[in-house]
Design a protein that fits this description.
single chain, 251 residues, 7-stranded mixed beta sheet, 10 strands
Length: 251
C-alpha cells in the first residue's frame, strides 16, 4: 500500500480480498510512504490491529514519524513495526510479503520538490519523494507522486519511463487555497504545484509518453472534480485522466 490515509479502513473494505477467519485480519503486507504528512500516515495507527507492519520510507520520513508526529512509537505499543529505509534516488528495494518471500516487485524513491510537514523539526533531504513500483515479471512501472511543488525536467524524465503515472493534482490554480479560505499560502507554497498556469504541471505532464497519466490527491476545491467543467475538459483534452476511487490499471 502506498501511503496510509485516515480512511484506510474504508479503502480496505473496497478490496476484492478473500474472506478470512483470522482474528483482526489486515490484508496489507507493507506500507510505502511518500512523506510524513498526517493525511498520508495516520492510517498506520489504524492498522495496528494487524499486529505486524512493515514500512518502506526514507530516513527523513521515518525520523519525523518517530520524534515529531510520534506515530511510530504509538503504533509500536500495539504492533511490531519493521522498517526498510529507502534511499532517495538510490537503489530500488525489494518488496516482500509479510512472511519474507519476494513479491516480484521493487520500490524506488525519487526526491521531488516540496517542503517537510509543518510539525517536522528538521528539513533533511528525502522528506518528500515520489515512488516508482517496478514489476520484475512484466517489466512494467507505476509512478506515484501525490505531492510535488514542481514538475521539473528531472521528475518529468522519471515519469516518462512509467506505464502508469499518478501525479499531484491537488489544486487547479496556484491561488486556489487562498480563494477558498484554506490559508494564506499558495498551492506551490503548500508543496503542490498547480495544474494550470505558467508554473502548472499540465503542459509537461500531458506531453509524457506514459500509457496512463492520472491526476490524483485532488482537493475538494478543485473544479476538475466536476465532470462537465471547462477545467475537466482542459485536463482530458491534454490526455490526462482525473483519478477516482476504484480505478485499476494493468501493466
Amino acid at each position: 500500500m502506498l501511503d496510509a490515509s485516515p480512511d484506510v479502513r474504508e479503502q480496505i473494505a473496497m478490496l476484492p480480498t478473500a474472506r478470512t477467519t483470522e482474528t483482526r485480519y489486515v490484508p496489507i503486507d507493507g506500507i510505502a510512504l511518500t512523506d510524513a504528512e498526517l493525511d498520508h500516515t495516520l492510517g498506520i495507527e489504524l492498522l495496528r490491529e494487524g499486529r505486524a507492519l512493515h514500512l518502506y520510507a526514507t530516513a527523513s520520513v521515518l525520523g519525523t514519524l518517530e520524534r515529531d508526529s510520534r506515530i511510530l512509537p504509538v503504533t509500536r505499543a500495539f504492533a511490531c513495526v519493521d522498517v526498510t529505509v529507502l534511499e532517495a534516488n538510490g537503489i530500488p528495494a525489494a518488496l516482500r510479503y509479510r512472511d519474507g518471500t519476494p513479491s516480484g516487485l521493487s520500490l524506488e524513491a525519487v526526491e521531488v520538490a516540496g517542503d517537510p510537514p509543518r510539525f517536522a523539526s528538521s528539513n533533511d533531504p528525502g522528506h518528500t519523494v515520489g515512488l516508482l513500483v517496478h514489476d520484475g515479471t512484466t517489466g512494467g512501472t507505476c509512478a506515484v507522486v501525490p505531492g510535488a511543488a514542481a514538475l521539473d525536467k528531472a521528475l518529468g524524465g522519471r515519469l516518462a519511463g512509467a506505464d502508469v503515472a499518478l501525479l499531484d493534482g491537488t489544486f487547479f490554480t496556484d491561488d486556489e487555497p487562498q480563494r477558498f479560505g484554506l490559508g494564506d499560502r499558495t498551492a506551490a507554497q503548500m508543496g503542490h504545484a498547480p495544474i494550470s498556469g505558467k508554473a502548472g504541471t499540465l503542459g509537461r505532464f500531458g506531453g509524457l509518453p506514459c500509457r496512463h497519466k492520472v491526476y490524483t490527491h485532488i482537493n475538494n476545491t478543485n473544479p476538475i472534480l466536476v465532470e462537465d467543467s471547462p477545467e475537466r475538459r482542459t485536463v482530458e483534452l491534454a490526455g490526462v485522466v482525473v483519478g477516482a476511487d476504484g480505478m485499476t490499471f494493468q501493466i
